[in-house]
Sequence to fold (345 residues):
Amino acid sequence: MDKFELYKKYSKEIFLIDSPSGYLHLINKRISELLADIGLKANITNKGTIELFIKGKKSDKKIGVCAHVDTLGLMVRSINSDGTLNVTNIGGPLIPTLDGEYCRVRTRDDKVYTGTILAKSSSIHVFPDSKTQPRDINNIIIRLDEIVKTKDDVLKLGINNGDYVCYDTKLEFTESGFMKSRFIDDKGSVSLLMTMLDVMKKNNEMPEYDTCIYFTNYEEVGTGAAALKDLDEILAVDMGCVGLDLDGNEMNVSICAKDSSGPYNYEFTTRLINLAKDNKLDYVVDIFPFYGSDADAALRSGLDAKAALIGPGVASSHGMERTHKNGILNTISLVELYLFGKMLK
Ligand SMILES: [Zn+2]
Fold:
């Protein structure tokens, strides 16, 4: 199986599992199983970060590479008297893109109910403002696919405030090499690290230095990698920005020089740029205007490490996202060059 076919295999598993920030038991279980299948034993921390130690050829520094497995989502805020649900957002979804999406309400006793995310004025034949009502968090509701006419009907189903609402990713790979889906940020990067680990094990490769791989949670709400300790370098693999005056695009790996938290480590970032340049990867160096990463969260929590950020260009972020096979493969290559000093076959 070539690398991109392997990538598709992992992403089809990982994108299928609902995992808005904090709803982590299903995804952590499945990723642990997938790691076990390739002979890697992961530990899950109290906070819910999956961590994996890989012995390197040298131990004079310790490397961390992270991607976040949590996604955006919604949560039930309150139940209306007509049996619809008000919601609050988890992270920052582009709310207008949610109008009309199918979803699942997951109760705390593991019942799952389907429904649709809709604007309150959802019928063009009835509501004078059906076209103009703002599609914001205060004007969308969940219509459950159950016969419910009152708040009590909903409560009887076992649905309550604080239940997670998860919506479809709609993952598709096109013949032309595009991957379109919600949550390429950052399940796209989790899948590419899984691909790299799989190839590493098959080839019996060892990283240059002792390495920890982390699949973090709560990144979309700001604290993802905040609990990491004892690393000399931390590389966050997350989506690259596309749009406006940025050079980033879906074909390239973006190397971020600065985001909303300021510049990344100068020496580490320069080393990544040189690796990309010397090995003829398609890459860009960019500034991400409205962006925070797990590397930022780690530094803010007190981690004393050099931090850098790379990732495939992802268009229409936090909405209906898209990237391309070339962006994914360039990113895998850069992570491999960084960890192994060469691209894995
Ligand atoms: Zn992200």
Observations:
- The chain has two domains: 3-71+183-340, 73-167.
- The chain is about 25% helix and 30% strand.
